[in-house]
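Q: Hi! New to this. If I give you a protein sequence and the SMILES for manganese (II) ion, can you show me the bound structure?
A: Yes, paste them in.
Q: Okay, here:
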Amino acid sequence: MIPKLSELVELLRGHRVFIQTHNFPDPDAIASAFGLQVLLDRFGVPTVICHHGCVERAATANMVAEFGIEMITDENLPDMTPEDYIITVDCQKGNANIRDLIGDEVACIDHHPVFCEVDDYKYKDIRIVGSCATIIADYFRQYALDMPESVATALLYGLKCDTRDFKRGVTQLDVEIYAYLFPKSNFQQIRFFQSSEIHYSELNAFADSMRNIEIFNGVAFVFLDFHCEDAFIATMSDFVLDIDAVNFAIVYTRRGDGFKFSIRSEFDELDAGQIAFAALESIGSGGGHRSMAGGFAEESRVLDQSIDVHKVIQNLFLDVINKVPRTGLAARFMPMSEEK
Ligand SMILES: [Mn+2]
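A: Thanks. Here is the predicted structure of the protein with manganese (II) ion bound:
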């Protein structure tokens, strides 16, 4: 059941409202927040977009600058109070990718599977579709509101990013929303954003990490042994999955007191979110979609198992993956194997 937008508007009216994206927001998160801000403004509900962490990619920063999207980082929000309302977009309260701010998370609009149940949202629209931008665009479509070109372009860019140009996690609604946004958006701008997704400064890192790739029966592990942004890990795991010998990609790097993971799967049967959840349960946390997921492992808990951290990580994932029953494409191209 899709909740009604009017319920959200009624809930928010008279309150100070913040739209919070996940930390280090990506194009889908920012486009969704921007679209929702414009939408709520139509109903006389002003909002402030906020987030923790910087905008990592030049492509994403270009989008923010082109459309004049105003976003405030949490350090610059000293006056938020517990009475203020927060709508989380492209993320859910309680997950590792969103900082818990002092305001009250009353609403959630997201497209990720639920791994951490929150029962006190007053408004919840969680639909498992290709992007959060799809859900925001669907509000405009359902209510037949006209959409500025900037919003359409941002939402379409978010949709293209999260589905990697319609290569993963695509649903019927995403296709309908593509057709809806297409005539309203500016493709030249999207092309400009899309052509800045890899930074020149990362080329060496790219080449070095490819030399460290290890593949076991279609499952690839790449450890990025240098400081890199979340967005770079995501780009790398997309890239590794494109290799013919790889059907499942696990890319990770050191972050704080542990390791940050980006995970990709090309077979529905090997659900990346479920596998990340199960593999990382004993050393941290993981979750996400069928085709893309993420996670975190605490180094101290990895070291509890062995000093060879990479072996621990590989074994945890391979143990889970090797037990997943295969029937469809995975059975043909990635049969069960004892080999490690
Ligand atoms: Mn998203």
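A: Residues 202-333 form a domain with the Diaminopimelate Epimerase; Chain A, domain 1 fold (CATH 3.10.310.30). Let me know if you'd like me to explain how to read the tokens.
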